[in-house]
Each structure stands twice: as structure tokens, then as C-alpha cells.
Specification:
By secondary structure, the protein is an alpha/beta fold. 28% of the residues lie in helices and 24% in strands. It is built from six helices and six strands; from the N terminus they run H-H-H-E-E-H-E-E-E-E-H-H. It has a six-stranded mixed beta sheet with strand order 2-1-3-4-5-6. Strand 5 and strand 6 form a beta hairpin. The longest helix is centred in the first third of the chain and has 16 residues, at 3-18. The chain is elongated. The N and C termini lie far apart (83 Å).
Length: 197
Amino acid sequence: MSIFRYFLASTLVCAAAMLPTAQARDASNYSTQELIEALTQRFAKVLRAGPTRDASGNDAAIVLLEGKALNLSTKLQSVPGMRVLSKEQLVAEQRANFIIVSQLGMQGPDILIDYETPNNASFGTLRVKEQDGKLVFKAEDSYRSSSGARATYARLYGGLPCRDGSEMAYRFDYNGSSSRGKCPVPIFSRSDSPMDW
């Protein structure tokens, strides 16, 4: 090898060694938008399903922010596959299938997310980690509660008029008539009794 080629090769090796190496990101380094989009993908099967077997599914996952997560609203925007709705928008559309995010916070390199999906009566806390370039969700606490889901629907819709054909009409008449999507009574119940929902 000529001296010039040797010098060129050693210069290239030194230059390559000085380049910054790609470092793994912690979950806490992801933006709120990235975290919530990944969350809706994690629950895609649940969130895009119809509120009952008779109802059609959704094109996009619906996200509602409540509690301490409300201050995240300025950091989130709707994108294809995910719609971020205010409580007023969600109620106006009479949505039954959505995810409520009530808190999102750091714990070391990880993120903890408190959530509820009333359509399948599930709620809890997820720990989000970064692993091999992907966000991984692990249940920190996970619960199923049909009474909790009924309480959420009663809190959001209790006392409001039911609209035929809406997701909530299907959900409200889940155990009702054979004519699905028809409101069984004109007004949503304020009670979380299984007899009312």
C-alpha cells in the first residue's frame, strides 16, 4: 500500500470514529404526540371496533384528555388514524368508543400513562419503555370494571338526549331491542345501574 493510500485509509477510520453514534432513546425522550399515537396503535383493535357487533367500526381512534392530562391538549393534534376530541366534541358526536388519558408522566427513563377504555370496561396504568427503537407498553396496573364503564358513560351523557344511530345509541341499547341503534328511551340515564345501561 502506498503511503498516500495508507494515510487516506487511516484518516477515514479516524473520521468515522469521531462521528456521533446513534444512541437509544428513553421513552421520556419521545414527544407527547408520539406517545399518544403509539398508545392508540397499542389499543387499535379495541378503539376501532364498533360499540357493539351490530355497529360499524371507526376509521380513527378517539382520544379524550381529562384530569391532569388536560394540559397536554396544546401538544396534541389529530392525525390520520387518531382524533383528539374535547369533552364537548365527544359528547356532541355521542361517541361510545374512545380512550381517556387522565395522566401522563415520567418515571426515570419511562413514561406512565393512566387510561380508560370504557367500551371494553378496561382501565389502569401502563408503563412505556423504549426497546430496540420501539415503544413497548407494559401493564403496571390493569383492571376490568363494567360498573366503572357505566359510571363513565353516565357521567358524560347522563340527562342528555339520545340520538338514534349514534355510537351511544348502540351502546345504550346493548341489551335491548332487536332494532339496534335505536334509543330505548329518549334521555341517557344518570344512573350507573346495569338495569339502565
